[in-house]
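Apologies for my clumsy wording, but can you show me some protein sequence, whichever is easiest, together with the matching structure tokens, please?
=====
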Amino acid sequence: MYIIAIAWLFTASLLSIGQSSVVAGVLTFLFWGLLPLCLLLWLIGTPARLRRKARRERTSVSEQTAQEDRSV
């Protein structure tokens, strides 16, 4: 997946270099390269983030019940 992100940023950088002014190049890189890529990576990473959150909650609950069992 990261190879696609690198290729996309490379393509966006080539497009931005070909612009007529520096401002147009920076805006091209931001709006055609960086922002869409960040959104895509965030959307693709959502299931993994949810799994990590659920795993953390399960471990914290199991640790709490283990501490309660030891205190009784």
Notes: Residues 16 and 24 are 7 Å apart (CA to CA). Residues 2-71 form one domain. DSSP finds two helices and no strands in the chain. The radius of gyration is 22 Å.
